[in-house]
Design goal:
The chain has one domain: Rossmann fold (3-Layer(aba) Sandwich), CATH 3.40.50.10420. Helix content is 47%, strand content 18%. Strand 5 and strand 6 form a beta hairpin. The chain binds iron/sulfur cluster. Iron/sulfur cluster binds next to helix 8.
Length: 249
């Protein structure tokens, strides 16, 4: 009788624990379909990334393609020297690469218009100084495979610095920001980049409820200046780094 009871308990334990064991095994091992999907996405990123870099070079940008975040961050930091003044254009991509800390570690100074405790006047003053910094680092809302950059801006400080002023501009973009052409670039900005960015900023704009641009006219609208950068500005050093990863939005 005892043997029957023990066998029954063991069988029930196996019944209840097996799904847990299977799930843990699945998460410990890579799902073969995940591996295959990753390989396909890596191929697609490489193909579009390299094509875009070639187009950017034809448009006279210094462009490079990197497979990893680490390679990209190293390439950026090689361009930074101690004592330089470096500014960032509100880039989540730069934060994902930990560039702010790496720049400080290199002995450069950061002009940060989002530093805690700044009044509007002080913030404006920092943004004005950013326009003539040594290196301005930002991302782009979209980059077409024709090698052109597309951006919207609220205050205009980011797109102004991308157009003229800093000694060097470095634009870093994940392959998730590559698009087929100009129409697709503005489409990406209306449906992905802007709504997520204003959600990040906790704006009460309709895009943060609908998930796409509703062309609002609120004072909190952040889409005021629309800029296409079709060729490198002639007197600036301008690097565009494409990373085979999904970065920012
Ligand atoms: S125009 Fe208004 S609704 Fe459209 S993305 Fe910009 S802030 Fe959002």
């Amino acid at each position: 009788m005892l043997i029957i009871i023990v066998a029954s308990i063991i069988s029930q334990l196996i019944f209840y624990l097996c799904p847990v064991i299977k799930t843990e095994q699945m998460s410990a091992q890579q799902n073969p379909t995940d591996t295959f999907v990753n390989e396909m996405n890596t191929w697609h990123g490489q193909t579009l990334g390299i094509k875009t870099v070639e187009a950017l070079r034809k448009n006279r940008f210094e462009a490079s393609f990197f497979e990893t975040r680490l390679e990209t961050a190293n390439a950026v930091i090689e361009m930074i020297s101690p004592g330089m003044e470096v500014a960032f254009g509100g880039s989540q991509t730069a934060r994902q690469l930990n560039l702010q800390q790496l720049v400080l570690d290199k002995g450069a100074t950061i002009l940060d218009h989002n530093a805690a405790g700044l009044s509007d006047d002080q913030k404006m003053e920092v943004m004005r100084r950013q326009q003539i910094c040594d290196v301005f680092i930002c991302s782009s809302n979209a980059i077409s495979i024709q090698g052109e950059l597309f951006n919207i801006d609220g205050h205009g400080n980011r797109v102004a610095a991308m157009a003229f002023g800093p000694r060097r501009v470095i634009v870093i973009a994940g392959v998730n920001k590559l698009v087929a052409d100009e129409d697709a670039a503005w489409q990406r900005i209306r449906t992905v980049a802007a709504p997520i960015n204003f959600k990040r900023l906790n704006r009460p704009n309709p895009c943060t409820k609908q998930g796409i641009c509703m062309n609002c006219n609120l004072p909190t609208r952040g889409c005021n200046i629309y800029v296409a950068t079709r060729r490198k500005p002639p007197m600036m050093d301008f690097s565009v780094f494409i990373v085979n990863d999904s970065l920012g939005f």
